[in-house]
Amino acid sequence: MRATAPLPFRLDDEEPEENEVRPAPTAPIMTKFLEARTILLFGGIDHKLAQSVATQLLYLDHLSHEPIKLIINSPGGHVESGDTIHDLLTFIEAPVAVIGTGWVASAGTHIFLGVPKERRFCLPNTRFLIHQPSGGAMGRAGDIAIQAAEIVKMRERLARIIAQETGQPVERVREDIDHDYWMNVEEAKDYGILGTVVRSMKEVRI
C-alpha cells in the first residue's frame, strides 16, 4: 500500500445551486470516509457529482488496490455523468462494492450495475427504478429530430447494458423501461439487479 498522500481536492468548497438545500458533510468527516476507502454518492447525478466521485475513485485507486465501497442514494440524473462513474468502476484496478440505500433510480441504477452482481449490495428498504431516458428537446425542427434520434440510441444502449448485467432478455428490458419500473429489494434481486441484501457493513464481502 502506498503512503497516504494529501487530498488532491477540497470537499467543502462548492457553492450550492440557487435555492438548493444541500448541507454537505464537513471536509474532516469526508476525509475519514476516504481513509476508510468509502465514497458517498447522494443526490441528483450531474457533472459536478460525477467529477467528485471520479476524483475520489481515481485517488483511492492511486493509493492502493484495496477494495472501495461506494454508497448510493440517488434519484438519477444526467445520463452521461452516470456513464462516467459506471465506466470508471471497471476502469480502475481496485475492486468496488456498491451499496444502495433509500432509492437507487434511473442513472443511479446504471451506476449500480457498473460492478459484478456479487459486489452489488443494498440495505433492506432500498427501492430501485429503471426507465428510458427523457429529454426536453428545444430549438429548430431539425435539431429536435437529431436529439430525438440520440435519445432512441441512448435508450437502446441502456437497455442492452441492463440486459447484460441482469441476465434478462433485452426484449423484456425494452418493454419494462417504456414506463417507470419500480422494484423493492426482492423484486430487484429476482430481476438480477441486486446481489445481496445486507443489514450491517460487516456483511459486505468484497
Major beta sheet summary: 7 strands, mixed
* Secondary structure tally: strands: 7
> What best-fitting shape do the alpha-carbon axes yield?
globular
- What is Rg? 18 Å
| Count, helices | 7
- How far the N terminus sits from the C terminus, by CA atoms, comes to 18 Å
Given the helix and strand composition, which structural class is it? alpha/beta
Helix coverage percent of residues? 40-55%
The CATH homologous superfamily of the domain at 27-131 and 180-200 is termed 2-enoyl-CoA Hydratase, Chain A, domain 1
CATH top level label of the domain at 27-131 and 180-200: Alpha Beta
List unreliable stretches of 5+ residues: 8-16
Portion in strands: 15-25%
Q: What oligomeric state is this?
A: single chain
Mean pLDDT across every amino acid position: 88
- What name does CATH use for the topology of the domain at 27-131 and 180-200? 2-enoyl-CoA Hydratase, Chain A, domain 1
Order of secondary-structure elements: HEHEHEHEEHHEHE
CATH architectural name of the domain at 27-131 and 180-200? Alpha-Beta Complex
Characterize the structure shown.
- It is a single chain.
- By secondary structure, the chain is of the alpha/beta class.
- It has a domain at 27-131 and 180-200: 2-enoyl-CoA Hydratase, Chain A, domain 1.
- It is built from 7 helices and 7 strands.
- The longest helix has 26 residues, at 141-166.
Which secondary structure elements does this structure contain, and how are they paired or packed?
Layout: H1 27-35, E1 38-42, H2 47-63, E2 68-74, H3 79-91, E3 96-105, H4 107-112, E4 120-122, E5 127-130, H5 141-166, H6 170-176, E6 181-183, H7 185-191, E7 196-197
Parallel strand pairs: 1-2, 2-3, 3-4, 3-5, 4-7
Antiparallel strand pairs: 5-6
